[in-house]
Amino acid sequence: MSARDEILGRIRTALGPDRAAPAEVRRDYRLTDDRSPDELLDVLTDRLEDYRATVVRCAPSEVAATVGSALRTALGEHSPADVVVAPGVPADRRPDGAVEDDGRPAVALAGYAATVTGVAVAIAETGTLVLDGSPLSGRRALSLLPDCLVCVVEAAQVVGSVPEGLARLDPLAPLTMISGPSATSDIELQRVEGVHGPRTLVVVLVA
Amino acid sequence: MTAVFLGIPTAPRGVGHLRGDLSFPDAARDSLRDGQLRANLGHATATIRGKRAAVVGEVPDWAELREAGRAIKAATMARLDEHLIALEEQVTARGGTVHWASDATEANEIVTRLVQATGTDEVVKVKSMATQEIGLNEALEAAGIAAHETDLAELIVQLGEDTPSHILVPAIHKNRAEIREIFLRTMPGVDPGLTDDPRKLAMAARAHLRERFLRARVAISGANFAVAETGTLAVVESEGNGRMCLTLPQTLITVMGIEKVVPTWRDLEVFLQLLPRSSTGERMNPYTSLWAGVTPGDGPQEFHLVLVDNGRTAVLADEVGREALHCIRCSACLNVCPVYERAGGHAYGSVYPGPIGAVLSPQLTGIEDNASLPYASSLCGACYDVCPVAIDIPSILVHLRAEHVEAQQHAGPEALAFRALSKAMSNPRLWRLAQKAAGLGRFLAWGRPTLPAALPPPASRWTRTRDLPTPPKETFTQAWAREHGG
Ligand code: SF4
């Protein structure tokens, strides 16, 4: 007998011949968040800053300039070619001179100082950005290897709760949920930001 | 119904880490002498407890989420076979390959074979309870394959040739000076001027591992959840080492206990709220990765999912005990447990320590191999209160104790003592005699508040793990008679 048949057989034996229908799952927890869009932006900002991410707000016309100045703050003086952007980020939102991710071997991305991407959705209550592997979010290695990550979030992409956030996502896409810079508390429980992922996270909120 | 009766095998002996070398009381006595360990543990558990309480307290519908989490798990177990078949179908449809392993030995063989097929002799690993349980690192090593742990705490444990002591913070028993010493001794090319500043230590680990991540061809991970209806796998983490492993290598092998499946995508909206708040006390952990099969041009192009039984179906056969399979490994129950806080994770002998370990390990191995664990609890109930999926650990403990007592052919000294006690207590004359005899204990105590631990057997079986108070000068009834003239 194959291990598969063996295990499935054991499960059937364990559960016995007459199985009652499992009780229905009651989803009477909060499915939506009724706070106003403005309030949600404030909550998102508060949560992200609590994780020690930097949040800057700007108008749609100021995105490229805001990203550029955020990069100067994070990296100091740098070459524009140290910055790589996800292919779906519109041209008028890219910092001058940035390189587009052209699908080179993933490990080559480690040579860049910073990445600029969009997001698929942002969840205010938990301060979470979700990237979905689309051209706008970029492939997973792009938001992982360079040490500084700048994410541009549109106000319309911000939802209140986790259930609302997951409902907007495609379960078949490669998803990365990001809540602050990478961190560890493994040494005497002291929080250290930035172990393997980007040590700096900047969120540009377009509202 | 028990697994033994139904002929369902438990986790085999001689492989993996579900059994300790010592019984709980013996192992605990060693760790109780380690003042450093107790201080670290006390600090760690108190800190995480406080953080958890704060972020759970701010969720108005926590009770509803917890009940939904419990109900989803119960419904999953009731149809476990169907959900696993659906999961296999979905993962396969998206370019993954599913393997089934009925125990640790089979799982290790499958993974070893898969790694060998890629032609590499080293792999990077994300912290995973399942791979520790089956002893995968040792099996790979025996096959000449080096398995590099990449979680900072696991790295500390691995480099120090130590074993983990906590599910969430496995190196909590080591302080910064000890970690610095381990890094200096074992990391090739480390800066000899390395200080014990946690930031500096973390950066040393980052530098040490980065090159490994970039050259790795095979990664091995566990999974926190697997969605049956979509084939989506989830790994929840903080440091980004998980993302490195799940993203950069060409081949990904995920090893998962069969109980980790959840039926629907929507179920994650419950667990992704319950887990981070209960575990690290954060509103959300820094990184959660979700993937279904293989995505062309993004991440590993070869994906294997290994589904492991290793005693889980035996647990499923016990209608009371099966609730232990609902565990989402948040470790909240460890952090509130007065026994764990003092004895530490190593005393439990298994990779699953604390209250959940006390109910899960003996069921996975069969009670005879972990007989002391169901007694490693004061039944205070704190674990049940914090459990995000409402596992009634105290009731399972009592259930397992009963099973253990039943399994014993001969009455032990404890059973004999209680039998004698019950006889004495049902007869007033015998009871008064017994009370007089207890007064003799005062001679042994020599004025100290407790009796010496070195009572002769069989009484020593009781006193070696308990402080027995010195009996009072007179009993309540004697005092009453003296003062009121009885
Ligand atoms: S038993 Fe409950 S509290 Fe303990 S680790 Fe599992 S899920 Fe968490």
TrEMBL record, chain A:
Residues 114-206 form the LUD domain. Gene3D superfamilies: NagB/RpiA/CoA transferase-like (3.40.50.10420). It comes from the Bacteria. InterPro entries: FTHF_cligase-like_sf (IPR024185), LUD_dom (IPR003741), NagB/RpiA_transferase-like (IPR037171). This is L-lactate dehydrogenase complex protein LldG.
UniProtKB/TrEMBL annotation, chain B:
SUPFAM superfamilies: 4Fe-4S ferredoxins, NagB/RpiA/CoA transferase-like. It comes from Blastococcus saxobsidens. It comes from the Bacteria. Coiled coil: none annotated. PROSITE patterns: 4FE4S_FER_1. The keyword Methyltransferase does not apply. The keyword Repeat applies. GO terms for molecular function: 4 iron, 4 sulfur cluster binding; metal ion binding. Residues 324-391 form the 4Fe-4S ferredoxin-type domain. This is L-lactate dehydrogenase complex protein LldF. One of its GO terms (biological process) is lactate metabolic process. Pfam families: Fer4_8, LUD_dom, LutB_C. Keywords: 4Fe-4S, Electron transport, Iron, Iron-sulfur, Metal-binding, Repeat, Transport. Residues 409-483 form the Lactate utilization protein B C-terminal domain.
